[in-house]
Amino acid sequence: PDAEPGTDEFELFLKEVVREMTSKAGQKCTAIRRTIVPDSMMDPVIAALKTRLASVKIGDPAIDGVKMGPLAATPQVGEVTSSLTALKGGAEVIFGGDSVEPVGVARGRGAFFPITLLACDRPHDRLQPHEVEAFGPVSTLMPYEDFDEAMTLAARGRGSLVATLVSHDPKVAAKAIMEV
Prior knowledge:
Layout: H1 8-22, E1 34-38, H2 42-54, E2 57-58, E3 66-68, H3 74-87, E4 92-96, E5 116-119, H4 128-131, E6 138-144, H5 147-155, H6 170-179
Parallel strand pairs: 1-6, 2-3, 5-6
Antiparallel strand pairs: 4-5
Helix pairs in contact: 1-2
């Protein structure tokens, strides 16, 4: 909660979310799938992430400036699309999700998937963001009101392999380590 807009922690948080979504096109077992954000910061986080994600060039990684390449294989596009469809049952697409025009790649070639950000305004009532893993550049934002609620949401991750906490407060970090 102390990683507010204008702080170094807020900038680090944004950088990490974008990196996790785009590195290896989000195809790592440790990539971000759920982004748990203080309710009071949802609007600034959404605005900032949209701006940063919109600047990510997708395409042939050999081309200067391209920051995200294709998925591992063409069948993976169908799998990520199916997962995204399931996620839409519990969250709203707020960025991407449609199509992608990869830089330096002929139309219809390659296993490219658009960076997709969703928002789930009722994360306790929706199972999809906690249970569905789109193994690609897809993440769902979920708001929380207090630290205990954030830890409850984190625990619903069904075997998440990693978590990132961004805070300048050592007491928050220590409590999160013990809770998670």
